[in-house]
Specification:
elongated; Serine Threonine Protein Phosphatase 5, Tetratricopeptide repeat; 682 residues; mainly alpha
């Protein structure tokens, strides 16, 4: 036994080392997709003081009102990550998820070792449980969940389910205290899948403690046992139901429920086939698939799916009949039960690779148990034949090694948005959202022709998607096609008038093109829909600053400071409002740090070139404060006044420049321009 435990420990340590190596290149992977609104733009995770509010205020979950959900446990861990990293440092977010993943693997081991001891020799139970964990944690498909920060909800909810199951199985004498309910109670705050635990516990009691087969459940003599089992798990069911009701009551709407129910359900049978084979061959993983509902019930994929579900049910019934094969039945029940939540609710996304995370625990258990029973059956041949031992070792190394390599490669795909969405366009070429998002990465790089090409492709599949038209409008604005930019922003607003995004990005565009009065009007609509958006508040502050509307600037800055008390930009704008002195900012809206007259003079030229004439004047005034005899500052000031059409002020500034430097050619030209304009007005 001592030697067995030593070998088990060495195997576990080796597995841990391989897992670290497989995921070593993922810790700096960035934020993607829904991470943008739940993490990157979510101001509420930036203060640990908000943690209590996560548990009663759904608006804390996301920066986007259309995604205001209720997963306070997830949001709490994100806030802690933000605090540990001192901001949006991907390492801490990725490390956090990875640690929970390791803990989950440990819990799975102890659950399955306890189960297997009831059916097979104890010397084999530990290694088979470890084999289950190995195939699960090193399965390439799970990299889709581990790399996707907001998918931590799957990790945490699954961990809580497994923890409850372990407490119930390992500590039967403590059941009367209800300790096993505590992790499930916590898990509801991570994701809605915790209700699956009731199904798992129900079948665990019947299969392993009452030693009944699935067929036995329908015999009259066993109905009392079935009823008693139900009563045993009733406290758990009541607690989870109450907590689930509380959680759902906090959510105003559930996004994504758009597909017709019956076709969606039938399509899921084919999706189950896809998931089943992906466990063995995770070769075509995609962060955002292009699958759609199959509307024809006679489609061969539906027929194949129905045959698969039938086979699955028959296999569960048959394997539940014998004590040694009941773990196989339980694993398959786990696989099916874990898929039910996303199979019965007609989500917009027919399939999603991170949905395999929870079900694969059961499938790994069934597959490894089946292989283990074969090894037990032929163990004498194995012991006596070195060739078979080598074949077995190669088989194990091949499975785990290829999966570890697959994880390493998927980590590269998840590195940044460009690599991720390029992969999506290749794996899911009919996915308009994927095409759009890849185009967006090209637009951010300034590769406008390529971005336009991908946006055009996306419009073929998403003709009514407002986000696409926002991005097209931004592209048109960046390339100087302002009429088309306006048209596309307005189309986006008409397609989705209840969301803040079209208004927010249109307001930003209007502000960038110096149409501040229009920008404020549009931005106020965005603020009504989403009062927590940093983008909306930042654009408003910048517009009020440019218009020198000090009262409104102070009011808006204070709104931002309520959300983010330490926000440096809001503090700077508030100080500017109090001084009634325009804040100088760069192209990204950040306050510029200037110390010398030369600094202010150079900045004034930058402002002039982008038609920020008021800021140009402000920078020149600061330069003159530091160097009162700076002719260039007065000349630039005069040019800016001319740009605003304030000809008298322009002429006076140019005259001051010429007093300091009579040969200043730019001042002469700007003075002549101003005087000619003044003469024409007389």
């Amino acid at each position: 036994m001592l030697q067995t435990n030593r070998n088990l420990f060495i195997s576990a340590f080796t597995l841990f080392a391989v897992l670290i190596i497989a995921y070593a290149n993922h810790f700096q992977n960035g934020f993607h997709f829904d991470d943008s609104h739940a993490v990157v733009d979510n101001v509420h995770i930036r203060s640990l003081g908000n943690i209590p509010a996560y548990f009663y205020d759904p608006s804390m979950f996301s920066a986007d009102p259309t995604h205001w959900g209720f997963r306070p446990l997830v949001t709490t861990t994100l806030a802690i990550d933000y605090w540990l990293g001192g901001g949006l440092n991907p390492f801490w977010f990725q490390m956090d998820t990875f640690i929970w993943f390791i803990v989950l693997g440990l819990l799975i081991f102890f659950v399955y070792r306890n189960l297997l001891k009831r059916s097979i020799p104890p010397t084999w139970a530990g290694f088979m449980a470890l084999g289950t964990v190995a195939w699960y944690v090193l399965n390439t498909a799970n990299a889709e969940t581990i790399n996707y920060v907001i998918a931590r909800s799957d990790v945490l909810s699954t961990l809580c389910i497994v923890a409850s199951l372990l407490i119930y199985i390992a500590y039967p004498q403590k059941r009367k205290f209800g300790l096993y309910i505590i992790p499930a109670f916590v898990g509801v705050f991570a994701k809605e899948t915790v209700l699956v635990l009731v199904i798992l516990l129900f079948f665990y009691i019947l299969l392993f403690e009452n030693e009944l087969s699935i067929a036995d459940l329908f015999r009259k003599k066993n109905l009392k046992t079935v009823w008693t089992t139900f009563l045993r798990i009733l406290p758990l069911l009541i607690v989870i139901t109450i907590m689930q009701y509380y959680a759902l009551s906090k959510v105003k709407s559930i996004p994504g429920i758009t597909n017709p129910f019956i076709p969606y359900i039938l399509t899921q049978t084919w999706v189950w086939v896809h998931y089943f084979f992906a466990f063995f061959l995770p070769l075509n993983l995609s962060a955002d698939t292009d699958w759609s509902v199959i509307t024809n019930p006679a489609d061969e994929r539906i027929l194949a799916g129905l045959l698969f579900v039938t086979w699955l049910l028959i296999t569960i019934v048959k394997t539940s009949a014998k004590k040694e094969t009941r773990p196989i039945a339980f694993g398959l029940i786990w696989f099916a039960a874990a898929l039910l939540p996303t199979s019965l609710a007609p989500f917009a996304e027919v399939t999603n690779d991170h949905r395999m995370f929870f079900p694969f625990i059961g499938l790994a258990f069934s597959v490894v148990t089946y292989i283990g029973l074969l090894l037990i059956k032929y163990q004498q041949k194995l012991k006596s034949n070195l060739k078979y031992q080598y074949i077995l070792a190669v088989f194990i190394l091949l499975i785990l090694g290829l999966n570890a390599y697959g994880i390493h490669e998927r980590n590269k795909v998840w590195k940044d948005d460009e690599s991720l969405w390029l992969d999506v366009t290749q794996k899911s070429p009919l996915n308009g959202r994927g095409l759009m998002n890849y185009g967006l990465t090209q637009m951010e790089k300034g590769n406008y022709p390529t971005a336009g090409l991908y946006f055009e492709k996306a419009s073929q599949y998403l003709p009514y998607y407002s986000t696409l038209y926002i991005n097209i409008a931004i592209l048109k604005g960046a390339t100087g096609h302002h009429a088309e930019a306006d048209s596309n922003f307005k189309k986006a607003m008409s397609l989705n008038p209840g969301t803040f995004d079209p208004y927010a990005f249109y307001a930003r565009y209007l502000h960038q093109t110096h149409r501040d009065t229009e920008a404020i009007k549009i931005d106020e609509k965005a603020l009504q829909i989403n009062p927590y958006s940093s983008l909306v508040l930042d654009v408003l502050m910048s517009a009020y600053n440019d218009l020198e509307t000090w009262d409104k600037l102070a009011e808006t800055a204070n709104k931002k400071l309520v959300l983010l008390p330490d926000d440096p930009l809001a503090k700077a704008y508030l100080a500017a409002a109090q001084k009634k002195q325009m804040l100088l900012t760069d192209a990204n809206g950040r306050p510029v740090k200037l110390t010398t007259a030369a600094d202010f003079l150079n900045q004034s030229a930058i402002y002039y070139n982008v038609h920020e004439y008021k800021k140009c004047i402000r920078a020149c005034q600061e330069a003159v404060k530091l160097e009162p005899k700076n002719a260039d500052a007065y000349s630039n000031m005069g040019a800016a006044y001319n740009g605003l059409g304030q000809w008298q002020e322009g002429a006076e500034a140019c005259k001051k420049a010429l007093l300091l430097n009579p040969n200043h050619q730019l001042a002469k030209g700007n003075l002549s321009w101003a005087e000619n304009k003044l003469k024409s007005k007389r």
